[in-house]
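Worked example

This section walks through a single chain of length 463. The input is the sequence exactly as stored; nothing has been trimmed or padded.
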Amino acid sequence: MSLPQLDSLRRIAPLAWPVFIGQIAVLAFSTVDTLLLARFSAIDLAALSVGAACYITVFIGLMGVVMAVSPMAGQLFGAGKPQEAGDQLHQAVWLALALTVVGEVLLLAPDPFLALAQTTPEVEAKVRSYLATLGLSLPAGLLFAAYRGFNTAVSRPKMVMVLQLGGLLLKVPLSMLLIYGFSLGGASVPALGATGAALATTVVMWSQLIVALLLMRRDPFYARFGLQQGGLHPPRWDAIRRQLHLGVPMGLSILIEVTGFTFMAIFIARLGATAAAGHQLAANLVALMFMLPMALGNATGALVAQRIGARDFAAARRLGWHGLEIALAAGFVIGGVIFLLREQVLGLYTHDTAIIAAALPLLLWVWIFHSADAVQALAASVLRAHHVAVMPMVIYALAIWGMGIGGGYFLAYGGSPWVPANLRGASGFWSAATVGLLVSAIALATLLAWIHRQERQEQAPAG
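Given that input, the structure is written out below as tokens.
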């Protein structure tokens, strides 16, 4: 690693590691519920599987829109305009509240999701109860996303990490009590199963938000942003419109990524329980591994946005490319280690030899997939720092939905005689998804290079 790359790493790492730990804590929420419900009831576990997929699809898309506050506040912070950066958070609050209405409608009327899942009436009833309860957490979740995006923009991610770790510490006992039920004195709370897990998450999300609001009002750090004087700023349509202009394609891009995995899981499930279980192990590994490039992307994007705001475009370009190179190197190494130790890693999940045999062929694709995932995550974050989001959304749609899902379905189910046996079934979906992600990574990196070239031409002296 060169000296300039080391210098960039020293700047990126302090912002990346708190995001990484915080996101691992958030990912652990679903892991805790899965482990507890697996010991409670198969029906409630099935309800969690369907309900969580529905909620994540809704929440992630809306959260992506709200997170537009990060690159916008980052540029203003870098430009030395803290009051204007703080106002972006106020406007993001209004945006989050408006999007909550949209989200609640989808969660309270989940019939399209249930029709796709084709669950039994008993599971469907539990899914509806789970989503109705978890819907109570949606406003807190979106408002906290605005707080998280703003803190990343102003290089303050450690506070978010502390709140997320505290949320996990609260989530574990709450989920245990509400899933299994408990008695306290003369009162007792019945076992609530999946609904109890949703209620625990709702309590945690509101607790996190309340503590975040108290911190903003009392921590001197936030005073310069005008966040400790008066109440919520009135909504300004011009500011909200700019956030929507950037946030909507951001949200759609994230939604395309999420639904790409969702549909892959649904189609692979048709191949049988063993194939689906093997895919689930590979998908869980990818989700865990993605936390690092996502953290690097958030940190790099924040620093690039700050440098753009300061009109230091050379530093912005340098940080962007170095972040991408660091993510690619880390992704390649981590994916390679997982592949080389694939039998031991899969053995941590299960001792079922049939499931391990189904998952083993996928681990080579996981290695390549993760390397490409790291590149596209960094490139997308840096492009968002430049307020470029529409073209990445188009690239994602063509590469992930078109090549990934469409190509995977053709390989797995097309029945063409020229398709080799090792590219059929679940491997067909993983190979096509990997190719799609490679294409998106190359296309996004090329787009970033074009943006940089345009900047250089604009800054070049006339004549």
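What to look for: The radius of gyration is 22 Å.
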